[in-house]
Amino acid sequence: MTPSTSGSPSAARADGRAPDQLRPISITRGWSKQAEGSALIEFGNTRVLCTASFTEGVPRWLKGEGRGWVTAEYAMLPRATNTRSDRESVKGRIGGRTHEISRLIGRSLRSIIDTRALGENTIVLDCDVLQADGGTRTAAITGAFVALAEAVRWAKEQGLVELGAEPLVDTVSAVSVGIIDGVPMLDLPYVEDVRAETDMNVVVTGSGKFVEVQGTAEGAPFDRDELNSLLDLALIGTAQLADIQRETLAEALR
Amino acid sequence: MTPSTSGSPSAARADGRAPDQLRPISITRGWSKQAEGSALIEFGNTRVLCTASFTEGVPRWLKGEGRGWVTAEYAMLPRATNTRSDRESVKGRIGGRTHEISRLIGRSLRSIIDTRALGENTIVLDCDVLQADGGTRTAAITGAFVALAEAVRWAKEQGLVELGAEPLVDTVSAVSVGIIDGVPMLDLPYVEDVRAETDMNVVVTGSGKFVEVQGTAEGAPFDRDELNSLLDLALIGTAQLADIQRETLAEALR
Amino acid sequence: MTPSTSGSPSAARADGRAPDQLRPISITRGWSKQAEGSALIEFGNTRVLCTASFTEGVPRWLKGEGRGWVTAEYAMLPRATNTRSDRESVKGRIGGRTHEISRLIGRSLRSIIDTRALGENTIVLDCDVLQADGGTRTAAITGAFVALAEAVRWAKEQGLVELGAEPLVDTVSAVSVGIIDGVPMLDLPYVEDVRAETDMNVVVTGSGKFVEVQGTAEGAPFDRDELNSLLDLALIGTAQLADIQRETLAEALR
Amino acid sequence: MTPSTSGSPSAARADGRAPDQLRPISITRGWSKQAEGSALIEFGNTRVLCTASFTEGVPRWLKGEGRGWVTAEYAMLPRATNTRSDRESVKGRIGGRTHEISRLIGRSLRSIIDTRALGENTIVLDCDVLQADGGTRTAAITGAFVALAEAVRWAKEQGLVELGAEPLVDTVSAVSVGIIDGVPMLDLPYVEDVRAETDMNVVVTGSGKFVEVQGTAEGAPFDRDELNSLLDLALIGTAQLADIQRETLAEALR
Amino acid sequence: MTPSTSGSPSAARADGRAPDQLRPISITRGWSKQAEGSALIEFGNTRVLCTASFTEGVPRWLKGEGRGWVTAEYAMLPRATNTRSDRESVKGRIGGRTHEISRLIGRSLRSIIDTRALGENTIVLDCDVLQADGGTRTAAITGAFVALAEAVRWAKEQGLVELGAEPLVDTVSAVSVGIIDGVPMLDLPYVEDVRAETDMNVVVTGSGKFVEVQGTAEGAPFDRDELNSLLDLALIGTAQLADIQRETLAEALR
Amino acid sequence: MTPSTSGSPSAARADGRAPDQLRPISITRGWSKQAEGSALIEFGNTRVLCTASFTEGVPRWLKGEGRGWVTAEYAMLPRATNTRSDRESVKGRIGGRTHEISRLIGRSLRSIIDTRALGENTIVLDCDVLQADGGTRTAAITGAFVALAEAVRWAKEQGLVELGAEPLVDTVSAVSVGIIDGVPMLDLPYVEDVRAETDMNVVVTGSGKFVEVQGTAEGAPFDRDELNSLLDLALIGTAQLADIQRETLAEALR
């Protein structure tokens, strides 16, 4: 990656990273004492608290099917961002963006869950953005996986998941990529995100397969080559995130 | 595409189409007498009424910028589907799916609009699904473009858009693609949609560039090759839709 | 009616109709492929899509009574009218006018239904105004009856209504009447509706009895004679609508 | 009316009234010390508190037209009825019935107001049912008129309405009528209301003209003769109510 | 108390009361014919209608515990105050103040109820302010107790509460106290309330024990001595209110 | 306090504290990089993130008065507690408890603010409970003061508050106290809170004056002596909290 950082002035990033370099990633497992699983995840200044709540039973529409359910809710504290936003609870409605991200997180986690192995149990992931600096949805997915894995481990220890069953069939993480001044870049903070011509969120399993590919032309429509460069970058980033997830889960709990 | 339809029994589609074949497409321009632009679009049994409402002025946050605004709202009649759903107006809230699709349609149309050329005017696209049989969001985008183009033409005739300005920089259409029993297929009706392992909605300009690529692993995560086959199909379908849009707009209004 | 059209210039209607003449009426039965019954009804430029959804079972408060339930919901697409209105789903509340009309349609249909013969089944009528040009509620009632009759026929064919039972005890239709410049007129389009001193909606059975009489002095209070003239006109109009309904239902389905 | 009370046992009313007799009516003017006008009205056990709030200025859509505005809101205390209902404020939505009655009261009062004479001022009538025993909407209209008249008198005294202008062009009152066991009856309490085959609310000016006629076939559709008998009764009742209103307003305030 | 009224000019109250004197208190028991218990209570011009609705059974979360439930809802008519407020039902949400007072009334009443003696029954107290002039929440608590006691008596007569069980273990009443120009005063009307430096609502049982003490420094923080003077006054006032409650309940019902 | 900790076994606390001892208190100033002021405060396992958002200008009703405005919003993450609660944004309404605590925090902070010195500026305090173990409202008030003080300091540095003006006239902190098994105790964690017969939240300025005293008999009404013991304890606790606040604010920011 040396060429892109030296030869091209347009590739210079405000935080000095190479185009294919993640921000400093930190995952604090078990940050909350109340939840069955939890993780405080940081992608640079983006900080998301993910908790996993395990309950026996499933929603009514799924009863008696012998399968479990995993869902997610995403939200942002009013002053997570640079200027304060009104609370959605005060406005009395959830905005479209919040809905959309909650649904994305839920789908992403369900892609690596064997709901039969989970049994008739429900896990709700709450992803609350405490501080926002771009990439909150991808940080949320990556952190939520850790909280989910902890909750599954807890459920096994409690005997709430059948002996020998393994609800987690893979890991999953996500990263944002985008094209800025014509250069594809990995893991965009807010200042880059607003300048990106094309913005893509990619959710990838530990085994390198795609779960979600969501690319949007914010500025100008993009061609097949640009799409391919972005996917390449996303695979580099999610492979590293998968490693960090595995290390975090391997460490003994406090 | 001959091999896949003849050699592989799994590729047989209930409606007899080849995997790379669109459903019968029909666009009735000017279906509504009230709106500045309108189109009733049909993708097989999917039927969406798109109207474009032109108003002078822009939302407060855009005032004085010399630019216009294009936005969209998507909704479904309660009995558009096989079983009746409660009205969102009765429930008092708009669901996540509705929000998500409204936002997608808005972004798609803005990608081919030169908001400076539009001047400080607003166009709202309403896409109401009268009958649903899969692909309602892609039909909505494709039909909304026709309604939008009609409203722009109307505004020019009325002198509400500056002489010589051309707000439309390209056309835009959308199609769904998916993998069913391992075979990539174009334009999925409901019965195929529910069986698809991977489902992708692709929004493409008349010049063949991507505006949105939204791929979701409904069943199993997908690999790079599968992604590429789906994008190939989507480009075939949207090229045909662009032709139909152009023909529709060329015809004199009744 | 000859005198009033020839001798009195005030009786001249913009669309050339005689004071006691309906607008062109069109009913397309089975317009929707999804619903158990449906009709697209047109009173001139007013266009309402009526669907009937049949479900087994009744609301909780009616369980075990051996009787069925018929109810209705009325709504208007945002650009059905000359200027766009905000969606009630977006506002998060249903307006008073919408509620009032939904209740009127429900009551009107229940007046000609034998709920015992229907058995413990529910039929919901959705009346969505696609294009509005006055008289939307009366068109909705008239079209909803056709959709209801279709759904009842379907239920009989499916064996969901007891053999020999006849839930429909009569037909029902509705029309608006009003006094404009002192002249009573039948079936008011929007331009006449806003000018009417008195406006009345009358719902009448096929056998010529009143189900609802709702007269409102928009401009000046009205006397007994005016009331009587309006009722006379309403009976002329609803008798013709009843004939059209019967013909529509007699035709074989496409 | 002698024949119907003596000869026909079905005409016997639980409270001993003749078919054409009102319940005891009581209007306490100035019941509230806070409002510009107020009246506590009783139709038998039905008890409605009506207050009129006068404010300078009109809603935005009416500004600069030189005309005033009169509107009304109707509501019921949760335990006004025999069993407690949930509060609409707690449910977060206003029911269809509430909306419908609020609109009816507003229209009725506007029919006897000269909005030009009122000037650019607004009067809001609040009609809160403290105890309900049938006929709450008609009691509300009748009491609201008294509160309105008081508020107009207050505004004149304050010089808020132009010298010599007379916003009130007539009085207005309302009564319910219905057919029970084939006998037309005046002013139905709850026990009669639920048994009525046909139920009609009639709003009449002091000069005997109709403002609203709302007849509904609760049980069986009704014919022209029945309609005429009901209108006769309504005119008897509203004439008496108009007298009581005039007497109440003539008395000096306590 | 003579010294404080004669020697200190600052202690002069607009209505001529001594600092430790209640406003005229009036309680009309059984004001509503519909509820199992009711009272119209007046503290000067403050007028609150309290009804008690008795229903068999308890909320789901309490089922099978052998205990009853008592809860309360407080609300204000829109024109109870000097200027009209929007209805909470129209705004679609209940304000913080309303919630807070409803909860306070509920807690106050539960403090003197033996829920086991009540059995699995629910009593809902509705306190609707018809006219507001300060102290509405304390009037509501005091009046609600009377309505509650009536409902309990009714339930005993109906055999809905076990023979020999006594759900009421004490009486409860409430009063406001405040410091105005340095002088502690009892039972503040609106004009005093807005001027108070410190405002306190105190709920006390008939046996003189505290149920709630809610003191707020509206103007300047207060010290221990001021707090003690206020509590002294509150005990004087609530002792008198307890006497009035007992007398009211001793009288035979009309 | 020695007698109660040694002689009385009932005084033994699960966490080994003396009755008059606070839990370990920690305040991390500047925890959020986005807000003008922030503090993460911990009372044992209770953890609240407080941010202060400074904006120029005041709400409309305060414009032109030359005074500023301070307000607060309190909320709890869904899994802050031992079992997950539904989000208020999802329910579409804010609960009574949330409203009540938000109002309490706002009043508490306004008691030590000179709104004239603040000028026409607004500071919104957001107090989000990340983990709850009793005393969340008192921790929120104590932490919010630190965030507020930071925001005021920032505003002075920015020149947004007039030179020489001092908006903060005192410090403010809060603590809960309660009677458990007859023993008054300071700073109750959740396990003690649910067992308390009487529960009191006391808000006190740095100079030892009361801002709010909110005592509630959860179990049995309390007498004057008990009230006095609780106030004594509260003054001990808030004096210590005031010291910690001062130390925190004296430290240089990281």
Rounded to an integer, what's the Rg of chain A over CA atoms? 19 Å
Number of strands of chain A: 9
Helical residues, percent of chain A: 25-40%
Order of helices and strands of chain A: HEEEEHHHEHEEHEEH
Report the uncertain regions of chain A.
1-9
Q: What gap, in angstroms, lies between the N and C termini of chain A?
A: 38 Å
Task: Give the assembly state of these chains.
Answer: homohexamer
Q: Count of DSSP helices of chain A?
A: 7
Q: What is the topology, as strand order, of the major beta sheet of chain A?
A: 1-2-3-5-4
Shape of chain A: globular
Overall residue-averaged pLDDT value of chain A: 92
The greatest interface between two protein chains, and residues involved on each side, is: A-F, 35 and 35 residues
For the biggest sheet of chain A, the summary is: 5 strands, mixed
Q: Please report which band the strand proportion of chain A falls in: under 5%, 5-15%, 15-25%, 25-35%, 35-45% or over 45%.
A: 25-35%
The structure class of chain A reads alpha+beta
